[in-house]
Amino acid sequence: MNVRTRSTSTMTAAALGVLLAATACSAPGDSGSDKGSDSGPIKIAVVDAQSGQLASLGDWEAKGAKLAVSEWNKKGGINGRKIELTVFDDQGDPTTGTNIARKLDSGNYIAMIGTAESAVTVAMAPTLKAAGIPNITSGQATALVEVKSPFLFLNGPTSTTYDSTLAEYLVTTKKFKKIAMISNNGSYGKGEHDAFTAALKEKGITPVTDQVVTTDQKDFSASLSRIRQSKPDAIFLGSEEVEAGLIVKQARDLGITAPFAGAAPQGTPVFIDTAGEANAENTIVSSPYLSNDTSDASRAFAQAYKTAYGKDAELHGAKAYDGTNIVLTALKNSNVATGKKLAEAIRATKYQGLLGDFNYDETGVGIFRTTIGVIKDGELSAAE
Q1: pTM for the complete prediction?
Q2: Would you tell me which of 16, 84, 222, 340 could form a disulfide with 41, CB atoms 3.0–4.6 Å apart?
Q3: Tens digit of pLDDT for each residue in 88-99?
C-alpha cells in the first residue's frame, strides 16, 4: 500500500469513528432518531390487544383512532399528506408489546396511540423513548407516570384522580364507613389498589377487608366469602372488565348485595354483559366520560362512531379519539415534526376533548377530573 492510500484509509476510518461516536451520544428523539420525511403518508400506529381477554378494549381504541384519522384525511390530511394508520395486536402481553415497539422504530412510525393495558405500555416505554416515538396511552396506572419518559402521555386521568373522586363520593356523599376491597395483582389492579387505599386513608378509613387475586383467576369464592363476612357498605373493584364482571356475578351468587364501585372498566358494556345486567345494577363508577349524551361534542362523536361502525361508542373509543386528535393537532402545529420536537408539540397542545380540556404537565398527564356515574337498567349515567 502506498503512502497516499494509507493516508486516505486512515482519514476515512477516523471520520467514521467520529460519526459513530456522535450517533452513539445522540439523545433520544434527536435528529438521529427522528422518523418521517417531507413527503408521503404520515405513519402512525395503534397498539392494543386485538385478541385475548382484553380484545374489546383494543377494538374500541382502534375504532376511535380510525375515526379521528378518517376525519382528518377527509379534510386533506396534514400539509396535504394523508395519515396512514396501522393497527398492531399486542395480545395484552408486555413482551409482544416490546417487540412491536421495535417494529415501529424500524418501520418509521412517528407516533403511537395505545395501549389500554398499563403493563404493556410500561414495557414498551424504554424502546419508544430510545426511538424517539411519542406515545399517547389509554392506561391509567400511576406506574406510567413513574416511567418519567418525555415521550409518554396519557389521554385520561391516572388512578389517583379516578380513585380520589370515588373515595370522596363513597365516604363523604354516601356516608359509607365499611368498605371492602378486591383487586388483582397486575399493573392495573395494583395501581388501583394503591390509589384507592391512599384515598381512603386520607379520609380516615381502613378497609374492612383487602383481597388480592391474580389476573388469570376464575374462582373468587374464597375472597368473596371473606368479603361477605365483613358485611361491607360497598365493595371496591380494582380489576379489568371481564374479571370484574366475573367477580360481581359470583358475589351475587353468594348473596352479597352491597354495591360495587370502581373506575373505567366498570363503566363498559363488557363489564355489564359479563356480570349480568341485574348483577351490575347500582355499580358506582368514577369516569371522565360517563355517556355519549353529556355534550354536543359527545353526541356528534357518538353519531359518527355509530355511522362508521354500526356500534355504540364508549369511554375507550372516546379516549383514543381524543388522543389521536391531540397527536394530529400537534403534528399540524409543528409542521409535521418528529421525535423530541413532536413530543414537545404534544405537551404544548391545549385541546378541548370529549373527556375534558387537556393541558399537559411535565409528567405527561393532561386531564385531572372524573365524575361519578351509577349503572341503572344496564346503562351508566350521572349519579343523582
Answers
A1: 0.87
A2: 84
A3: 999 999 999 999
